[in-house]
Design brief:
- The structure is a single chain.
- The protein has about 400 residues and is α/β, with parallel strands linked by helices.
- It folds into two domains: about 1-80 and about 360-408, Urease, subunit C, domain 1; about 80-360, Metal-dependent hydrolases (TIM Barrel), CATH 3.20.20.
- About 30% of the residues lie in helices and about 25% in strands.
- The protein has helices at about 1-5, 110-120, 150, 170-200, 215-225, 235-250, 265-270, 300-305, 325-330, 335-345, 345-350, 400-405; strands at about 25-30, 40-50, 50-55, 65-75, 80-85, 120-125, 135-140, 155-165, 230-235, 255, 275, 280-285, 290-295, 310, 370, 385-390, 390-395.
- The protein has an eight-stranded mixed β-sheet. The protein has a seven-stranded mixed β-sheet with strand order 3-2-1-4-15-16-17, with no helix packed on it.
- Helix 6 runs parallel beside helix 7 (about 265-270).
- The longest helix has about 30 residues, at about 170-200.
- The two termini are about 15 Å apart.
Length: about 400
């Protein structure tokens, strides 16, 4: 099966973006999965300057276009990894509060993770600090292709990571108190700056707010509503605490969930918060009192509650390493197919507030597309080509590592 072969691959042969830019590219597809609308049979996608200019079944091909003939292929939006702490050469998991650090400074383009992601059809990744640091720093949205972090980066410092998982030896009460202390200190700092500005204005001086210290800038942007928080909540009670904190300190947030959080699905739906489900999203749960086991299928539970969710992967179990597998698993356990595809495309883009750029095949969106040999949820389907911003950056028939593994 596809994922068994792929797990053997540490390095892929990638076609790098060329220096010249094709102004007009056309993809002729046997089937187009738009995600945001109806599927199109025997359709055409017109790309201009890296953006989708038109899509439909009866579209005239511009005379000067570079044509990619995928008449027997399936084309869909690229997969989006909306939460990943892989792709960096080191991770901060020791210092509890470092809002000023950025994963940009630790992104390692040569890591096999990015090459593997490209082969698996992932076109955008939110690389963000892990779940074990109280205030872990800022994450970056990157494309999995490029020889430097600068070339890979789409948005340098996109969101701040918070975690409600207390470190070993620290109670949840003490952990939440420490977070509140950090937030209260920032509230007081901003209040002091505003008072200084008012004093200057009263004396006939400038009305400009004093410059914020560099190390405090990220927290200030959080409380000013300019930067969202990705808050990791391992338990349902943590979800309620995160909601309370976001309301009290008036910051925007997305939730990165643990398995136990299904119990708070109704509360999340009420607040209309977008979430990223845990990689192990289907599991058996034991009732210690009744000595009974119940199968928990998180995608179905959250869909029934009306929560918008995205999937994520990990490098643990084989299946959970692939976004397509996560989507297929959710369908296997009852999630509608359209919802599963959205969870790896459009919903993942919404979690990053980038739904106007990624996640669907519509006019004006970035041309981040997959050309597949078959249905995206079929284990026998391969990613044949990957297009990022109108450029073909991966071709299966030029993947030398894959050829060696398959013996052809």
């Amino acid at each position: 099966m596809r994922f068994i072969i792929l797990v053997l691959l540490a390095v892929s042969s990638v076609v790098p973006p060329s220096g010249a830019k094709d102004d007009v590219v056309v993809i002729k597809a046997g089937r187009i999965i738009t995600v945001s609308g109806e599927e199109i049979q025997n359709g055409v996608i017109v790309i201009r300057d890296g953006k989708i200019d038109a899509v439909g079944a009866n579209i005239e091909v511009p005379w000067d276009a570079k044509v990619i003939d995928a008449g027997k292929r399936v084309v869909m939006p690229g997969f989006i990894e909306s939460h990943s702490f892989r792709g960096v050469d080191s991770a901060n998991e020791n210092v509890p509060s470092v809002p000023f650090v950025s994963t940009f400074d630790s992104i390692a383009p040569a890591l096999p993770y990015f090459e593997d992601s490209l082969r698996q059809g992932i076109t955008s990744i939110f690389v963000v600090p892990g779940n074990w640091t109280m205030i872990g720093g800022q994450g970056c949205v990157v494309r999995p292709v490029g020889i430097t972090a600068e070339k890979m980066t789409i948005i340098k410092n996109h969101a701040l990571k918070l975690s409600l998982q207390p470190p070993q030896g620290v109670s949840r009460m003490a952990h939440i108190a420490a977070i509140r202390k950090e937030l209260d200190e920032m509230v007081e700092y901003l209040r002091t700056l505003d008072e200084q500005k008012q004093v200057k204005v009263a004396a006939g001086g400038s009305s400009k707010t004093p410059e914020i210290e560099l190390k405090r800038e990220t927290m200030a942007r959080l409380l000013q509503g300019k930067t969202p928080a990705f808050v990791y909540c391992p338990t349902a009670s943590d979800v309620l605490k995160a909601i309370e904190l976001s309301k009290q300190y008036k910051f925007r947030m997305k939730l990165v969930l643990g398995r136990d959080t299904w119990k708070a699905a109704a509360d999340i739906a009420k607040e209309k918060i977008e979430v990223i489900l845990p990689p192990d999203m289907v599991f058996w749960e034991t009732d210690e009192e009744k000595h009974e086991e119940t199968l928990r299928v998180l995608p179905s539970i959250f869909a029934k509650a009306g929560v918008t969710f995205a999937f994520q992967t990990d490098n643990g179990t084989l299946g959970s390493s692939y976004l397509w597998y996560q989507a297929a698993t959710a369908v296997k356990y009852g999630l509608p197919r359209a919802d599963a595809l959205k969870a790896v495309t459009l919903n993942a883009a919404r979690a990053l507030d980038l739904q106007d750029r990624f996640g669907s095949i519509e006019k004006g969106r970035d041309a981040n597309l997959l050309i597949l040999t078959g249905d995206p949820l079929d284990a026998q389907t391969w990613v044949d080509q990957v297009v990022i911003e109108g450029k073909v950056v991966y071709e299966r028939d030029k993947d030398e590592k894959l050829k060696r593994v398959l013996g052809k």
